Amino acid sequence: MSLAETDKHIQGLYEEWSSLQPLSRENDERLWEKIRLEWNYNSNRIEGNTLTYSETELLLIHGRAEGGHPLRDYEEMKAHNVGISKVREFAEDKEYCLTEADIRSLNLIILKEPFWKEAKTPDGQPTRKQILPGQYKNQPNHVRTATGEIFRFSLPEETPAKMRELMEWFRENIESHPASIASFLAELHHRFILIHPFDDGNGRIVRLWINYALMRFGYPPVVIKSEDREGYISAIQKADTGNIEALAVYLGKSLISWLEIGVKAAKGEDISEPRDVDKEIDIFIKVEKARGLKDVRPLSRGDIEEIYEQFWITLLGVFENQFKQFDELFYSSRVSFKPSDYERTLPGYTLEEKLKEYIRRWGEGEESKPFGLEVLYENYKASETFGMKAELLIRKRPSDFEYRMRTKAEPSDLATLKERKDRHVWKDSEIREFVAEGKKDFLEILKKMAEKTEE
């Protein structure tokens, strides 16, 4: 996507986003909670923080620290959350413009107190450096690149003047909406990183700063995903070599994604992403463990590699593996092949062998019943016992296939059904999205049953 195409896409979404303002209180709160958690987790993760997403949510929402991480990781996550709140507060005051003192204050907020950090000298020798939050660097903080070259940031004696110059540029440009918001963000990001004014926290500060600008202009904040750290760093490096447009396009694409999420939130639509259900399940399991799971045992079966060319093997493999996430909440879990009579007539066969035999019989006209997998969970550990069942069945129709994913609680009338009819092979992303929808339904029923048995 070119910069012109990126700008055009952003403009269309921004007009739609603006037309939906103001958001209802409920929609605004759920959008901000998603942004806040994603922002805290990803911005810190990019810089090496070891907390997982679920541990971040437990810390910031439930006030509980989980996992054996360095104390500083927990403290910096909480401090960054304070920094986000401060930036949002600044942005809501349209008469106020962020100052150089505010930038230094934000660095002090997110780093909290002086500490020692492992570092390297310009010639690559290990050393230790004291980090003084809120103060500009007093020693060069150049870095050695992967090729062995030294990349030089502004010298300590140059930093105050260059920061004043950057702040003057920012004040001149923040009062009116730029023709290309993506180019504006890239310019701000690039100029700040070239200065690298602090001994630590520069990445987090520049992401706070560009989001201040976005909120000031009326956009939602953007979150650079830690899983795409390499793509983010690559865009920064291209800007360093003169191709700042690459960074503008990268940040613009991120803005497009968050504008799309913002528009969905404003319309009252679901703003969860396929991976969000994994995060939610992980958090739910940790909360249930805290309540006291009994006789928690390791998974009885190892991960099964399902890397095959055939679509159905991949789909069933993803289904089987993804639902193992719930195993530790129940005393027993069992995966069985459908049709169920194969369990009796083919004793000793593996699931893959049963599947191959079914396909053989189907191909020869000897079989017509739907086939697939059923995962049966028995005896929930955290409350009065109940069971759960999830099944994925595939049925051949005259011109396509029907995929049915059903989840059910036992004993209960609670049940859900997801269906899709298609004649084409799905992409991996489509497979995971379909399974994620079923997992989300399963989790909602599981929560209802857990709450019901507590009453």
Structure notes:
By secondary structure, the protein is an alpha+beta fold. It has 2 domains: 3-266, Fido-like domain (Fic-like fold, Orthogonal Bundle), CATH 1.10.3290; 276-454, no CATH class. Helix content is 53%, strand content 14%. The protein contains 15 helices and 9 strands. It has helices at 3-19, 25-46, 53-61, 71-92, 100-111, 159-174, 181-195, 202-217, 229-240, 244-266, 276-292, 311-323, 341-345, 351-363, 428-454, and strands at residues 115-120, 126-131, 143-144, 150-151, 330-338, 371-380, 387-396, 401-410, 415-422. Strands 5-6-7-8-9 form a 5-stranded antiparallel β-sheet. Strand 8 and strand 9 (415-422) form a beta hairpin. Helix 2 (25-46) crosses helix 4 and helix 4 (71-92) runs parallel beside helix 8. The longest helix is centred in the last third of the chain and has 27 residues, at 428-454. The model is unreliable at 295-309 (pLDDT under 50).
